[in-house]
Amino acid sequence: MKIGNIDFGEQPLFLAPMEDVTDIGFRRLCKRFGASMVYTEFVSAEALVRDVKTTVRKLTISDDERPVGIQIYGRDTDAMVEAARIVEQAGPDVIDLNFGCPVKKVAGKGAGAGMLQNVPKMLDITRRVVDAVRVPVTAKTRLGWNHEQLIITTLAEQLQDCGIQALTIHGRTRSQMYTGTADWTLIGEVKANPRIHIPIIGNGDIHSREEADAAFSRYGVDAVMIGRATFGCPWLFSTQELTLNEKLDTLEEQLRINVEMIGEQRGILHTRRHLAATPIFKAIPNFRQTRIAMLRATTMPELLNILEQTRTLLNSHP
Question: Does the annotation mark 233 as catalytic?
Answer without folding.
Answer: no
